[in-house]
Fold this sequence. Notes:
Elements: E1 2-10, H1 14-22, H2 27-30, E2 34-39, E3 50-57, E4 60-72, E5 76-83, E6 88-98, E7 101-110, H3 120-150
Antiparallel strand pairs: 1-7, 2-3, 3-4, 4-5, 5-6, 6-7
Amino acid sequence: MVDVYTEIIIKQPIEKVSEYAANPDNAPSWYVNIHSAQWQTPKPLKIGSQIAFKAKFLGRELAYVYEIKELIPGEKMVMKTANGPFPMETIYTWEAPDHESTRMTLRNKGIPSGFSKVFVPFMSLMMKRANNKDLQKLKDILERYRSESKA
């Protein structure tokens, strides 16, 4: 079982962070490994929405569809693979430690199929590394936007 948890503090209000991060159209801009996101159901984002992603991870091209299972704007979003290389659940949460910043968590849980159990610890480590890069990139994008909007 893979269960990877990462978090970051972003100096932006919770509304800005959650709106940007929850929008699948923005995923390729801040997820290092995601190349494209294509809506399979009509916008706006809601429970039951499906989005097809194309990504590269551990040298493999991956195509999978996530379905939104839970959506509480500004608090939590849960997505599960509707189809793809292995069952995965991704959970975003947002909390406001103060009015000027947001703590965002990113958690991926799943059971990789087709991978030997000996690869799971390596895969978890690589996912954690990638998730940390993703959250740092999100932070950079949103905090750069903040400094540009103040200029």
